[in-house]
Structure formats: structure tokens, C-alpha cells
């Protein structure tokens, strides 16, 4: 039996804080973020008749948000100042020894398989917290690439950065996320 429009509305309202938090990674102004999320919620309600249920409802709503954010970023590109990467960068060279092997203190921990991890719902809560604690420019590039699935050329065009800068920011974002996840998830008792 297919859920009613009322149950979808309550699901949307429950999803709203997460949509705003995700949108804030791309849009620094809370008012603009809330406006975009409101547009997404309206589009989702208007598009319920086309929702087939082949994807989870949350995934379907995030895909609407993805397209709204891409449109917003493209429209606001002209207004943006030149993008500058973060000053408090991780010194990657300190993670490796002279033979380019992992330094013992920087060696990645053993992680469980992604298939096992997705079953543990609070992993995604920790991931969201880690993502939200990345520096804003780093989180923006990471979200565009990994969560919104834009290719490097599109990211560089939207943010007016070089391809090399984009790859450097992505690498640093992954290192910071790894470190945060290891501290907040993988190293907790019972999770390794």
C-alpha cells in the first residue's frame, strides 16, 4: 500500500533539518539555505505523483535538492569572489616516511566493509557531523564532488578554482574525514 500525501509531508518535515544542514555546506547564508529547502519541499510535494518508490523517499528528495543546489551555484557564480583554499591545511608530507610509506602514527585504521557499515545507522550521523565540521570551503568542494556527483571540471567552473586546487582540497577533505571518522566511530569500543 502506497503512503499518503500526509505521511510524505510528515517525512518531509522530519527531513527538513538535515536538508538545511546539507544546504548550508553549499550556501553560507541561512536565509538562502532555508529558501532552497522550501523550494525542494514544494517541488517534492508537487512531484509526489511522479515518485515511483523505486528509491527511498529521502534519496528522491536529496536528488531534488542536488539539482536545486547546482542551479543555485551556477547562478551565483558571477557574484562569488575568487575561491581560496583553507589556510589550516593538513601537512600531508608528515604522514609518510622517507620511502613514501605510511608513518606509524598516521597509518589508517582497519575499517569494516561498507556493506556492514551502512547497516549501522549512527555511522551516518557521525559522518554528517564530521562533514559539517570540515572547513566550509573544503566541505563545499567535497559535497559537490562526492555527494552531488559533479565532475571536476564543473566544480572548477562553479567555484573558479584550478583543477589542481580542486584535487588538493578533495584529498585534504578525505584525510580530515578519515581522521574524524576514526576518532568518532571506528576507534570506539565495539566498532572495530
Q: Would you give an account of this structure?
A:
Keywords: DNA-binding, Sigma factor, Transcription, Transcription regulation. Residues 13-78 form the RNA polymerase sigma-70 region domain. This is RNA polymerase sigma-70 factor, ECF subfamily. Residues 126-177 form the RNA polymerase sigma factor 70 region 4 type domain. There is one protein chain. α1 (5-26) packs antiparallel against α2 and α6 packs across α8 (163-186). This protein has helices spanning 5-26, 30-46, 57-76, 114-117, 121-132, 136-147, 152-159, 163-186. The chain has two domains: 5-79, Rna Polymerase Sigma Factor, Chain: A, CATH 1.10.1740.10; 92-186, Orthogonal Bundle (Arc Repressor Mutant, subunit A). It is mainly alpha-helical and 192 residues long. 62% of the residues lie in helices and 0% in strands.
Amino acid at each position: 500500500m502506497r503512503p499518503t500525501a500526509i505521511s510524505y509531508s510528515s517525512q518531509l518535515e522530519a527531513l527538513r533539518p538535515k536538508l538545511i544542514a546539507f544546504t548550508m555546506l553549499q550556501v553560507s547564508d541561512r536565509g538562502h539555505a532555508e529558501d532552497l529547502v522550501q523550494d525542494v519541499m514544494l517541488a517534492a510535494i508537487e512531484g509526489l505523483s511522479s515518485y515511483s518508490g523505486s528509491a527511498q523517499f529521502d534519496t528522491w528528495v536529496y536528488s531534488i535538492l542536488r539539482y536545486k543546489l547546482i542551479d543555485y551555484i551556477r547562478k551565483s557564480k558571477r557574484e562569488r569572489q575568487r575561491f581560496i583554499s583553507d589556510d589550516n591545511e593538513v601537512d600531508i608530507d608528515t604522514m609518510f616516511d622517507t620511502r613514501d610509506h605510511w608513518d606509524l602514527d598516521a597509518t589508517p585504521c582497519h575499517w569494516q566493509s561498507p556493506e556492514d557499515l551502512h547497516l549501522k545507522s549512527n555511522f551516518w550521523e557521525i559522518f554528517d557531523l564530521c562533514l559539517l565540521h570540515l572547513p566550509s570551503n573544503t566541505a563545499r568542494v567535497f559535497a559537490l564532488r562526492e555527494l552531488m556527483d559533479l565532475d571536476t571540471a564543473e566544480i572548477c567552473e562553479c567555484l573558479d578554482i584550478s583543477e589542481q586546487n580542486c584535487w588538493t582540497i578533495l584529498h585534504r577533505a578525505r584525510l580530515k574525514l578519515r581522521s574524524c571518522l576514526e576518532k568518532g566511530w571506528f576507534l570506539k569500543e565495539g566498532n572495530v
